[in-house]
Amino acid sequence: EIDLWDYDTTRENSERWIVADEFAVYLFWRDLDLTVADEFPAWRVSYDRGTTWEPKQRITEIGDNFLTNVATKNNILCMSINVSDLGGEPYILRVFQNGTSWSLSPDSIYASNFKFGIAMTEGVLHSAYEVPLLNEIAYRKSYDLGDTWQEPIIISSSSGFGADLPGLAADKRNIYTSWRDTKFGCAPSGWGCSIIGRNSKNNGDDWFDELLLSDIPTGMFSEPFIKGNVIAVAWSESHNNPDLDRVKVRVSLDGGENWCPVKDFGFGTGTKIAITTDALHVVYTNEDSQKVYYCRGEIITGVKENEIEVPQQVQMEQNYLSSNRFALALGL
Q1: Where does residue 296 fall: left (phi above 0), alpha (psi -120 to 50 degrees), or beta otherwise?
Q2: Cβ distance 262 to 215 under 8 Å?
Q3: Are 165 and 113 in contact (CB under 8 A)?
Q4: Which of 95, 118, 153, 253 is the S-S candidate for 77 at Cβ 3.0 to 4.6 Å?
Q5: What is the spatial distance between Cα 146 and Cα 271, in angstroms, rounded to a whole number?
Q6: pLDDT tens digits, one per residue of 140-153
Q7: Distance (Å, whole) CA 328 – CA 20
Q8: Per-residue pLDDT reduced to its tens digit, 109-152
């Protein structure tokens, strides 16, 4: 265990992300200086898979801001930040050369919600967000790291009440987004509704039909992850009683054509998910016990002799660590 947060009584660190690519592992967080009440993105980088870490870096030149999302590809980092001096709308902060240089996108992403997704494929920055007033999910992409954006397209079908809180994941030319939606119902109490997913296999040019992922309409925040043909979506529930909130996951082994049944991990919230070559990794917290739980599931992709179909199974093992804030990322 390594203390990476540069914590003291004058600071408050929160909302952490870990992203990894083939070059390095990057740790990000919102760094609040309590003595002057400013908040800036901070990060540390490791080039040896987390054994040693470079000193903390903090960008303060753009004014008070609120870090909301992080993506990386080919040693280029893109952070979405809400800049208070620019109306509170999210902009893309691009970091190059291992953090030695950076730039801010000239225009905002036009998101109206603190929860929206960004992801990167080769040469493309993707974004999914809630459209103001329309209350539906839009997708748009940029070929120049956010300097200019293509026209947005609506990827959620109209429900009459709205969709929000999208998450976004990408691998190669494959993209998957999931969000909270009202069209298939919501919980009678609390903030939970249905969790919907949709995928593209050509860098967002065309999209397959929506899919209802949740088994009951109580989902809140969802987290997709995609690696090759394996897609996983995790979400946490929101009931009026937090003691009823549960963590759930659904997995596809064939690029979204077929999906396994919903896996219920039990009571918890704040789900993060990642995929390696042969395993699914899920972490979540249980606020009552103040512990972070880690679950690993074997991904069965081979067809045994005399079997016609690939087994739709994810086997889970469980352990826990003593913390109540966490992030998860796995490099290629």
Answers
A1: beta
A2: yes
A3: yes
A4: 95
A5: 28
A6: 999 999 999 999 99
A7: 10
A8: 765 555 688 999 999 999 998 887 788 999 999 999 999 999 99
pTM: 0.81
| Rounded Cα–Cα distance for residues 154 and 168 (Å) | 15
- Written as six digits, the tokens of 25 are 């592992």
Number of other residues whose CB lies within 10 A of the CB of residue 34: 11
DSSP bridge partners of 73? 76
Model pLDDT for residues 268-300, shown as the tens digit of each residue: 887 778 887 778 888 887 766 567 777 887 776
Here the tokens at position 93 are 């902060």
